[in-house]
Amino acid sequence: MVNTVRTVLGDVPPEELGVCDAHDHLFFASPQLRGQELRDASAARAELAAFRAQGGTGVVQWTPYGLGRRAADLPPLARDTGVHVIAATGLHQAAHYTPELLTELRGKLAEVFVSELTAGIGTSGVRAGLIKVAGGFHALDAHARWTMTAAAEAHHATGAPIAVHLELGTGALDVLDLLCGELGVPPHRVVLGHLNRSPDFVVQREAAEAGAHLAFDGPSRAHHATDWRMPDALRALADAGFGHRLLLGGDTTTAAARSVDGGPGMPYLLRRVRPRLETALGKELVDRILTENPGRAFAAEWR
């Protein structure tokens, strides 16, 4: 079988992704972020167009089940802007959902994931191209273990990659112990998100040595060691032989963070982060991180 990336417009060869934002959101709505929902299709189109104007050609949307994905809106956005878009299935932390919805999903979560990966999300016909789940702060609670167990089952049924939100960048090794150790998911099918938020170079290297992909995603906040520590982290990992496992993303989760609303948004990754990393790491490595690596991380032998 041939590895392909499952976009909202169909499966494409990995190299077609081009310059890719490996973790972001066009649509996102959670009770944890009331009043900052990403729901406006026109704003999403403008954000994608701004990203395209900076040379971007691929975006991986990590918005999972029940958080306002607006899957039917994704294909026209991809066509209109010329940007490949990958949609997600999966389930975030319990705090993002009502207890009633979580109860409704008991006993059928893996089935939901598989259906969205193969038949499509709802009635949209748009097939998800990854499974997104989440850990907790330095630990995995019962909800994380439930969702990751379902994600592993769906991976084994479909071949889909699994992307993991690490809370403040922590718990990476616990996630790998569960997904890859107990549940048998190949490490190269796992993408660990937000490692920039916990600048523990030892943990980062151990995760890379295990075979996972490492995503450094989201611009700096005052309480996160992100942009200013990224060059050191990426250089250390590349020098250790793991340059092929590194990913970069923007992780725009609120309306105020969009570039069209005055925030950094998707273009920031290419407008500011890319040149800074090129100065520190060299253009060749940064080009590979933005182009070759996402195609490798999100491609699968779909079943």
TrEMBL record:
Keywords: Hydrolase, Metal-binding. Pfam families: PTE. SUPFAM superfamilies: Metallo-dependent hydrolases (SSF51556). Gene3D superfamilies: Metal-dependent hydrolases. The keyword Metal-binding applies. Its cofactor is a divalent metal cation. The modification N6-carboxylysine is found at residue 132. Belongs to the metallo-dependent hydrolases superfamily. Phosphotriesterase family. GO terms for molecular function: hydrolase activity; zinc ion binding. The keyword Hydrolase applies. This is Phosphotriesterase. It comes from the Bacteria. Zn(2+) 2 binds at residues 132, 165, 194. Binds 2 divalent metal cations per subunit. InterPro entries: Metal_Hydrolase, Phosphotriesterase. Zn(2+) 1 binds at residues 23, 25, 132, 251.
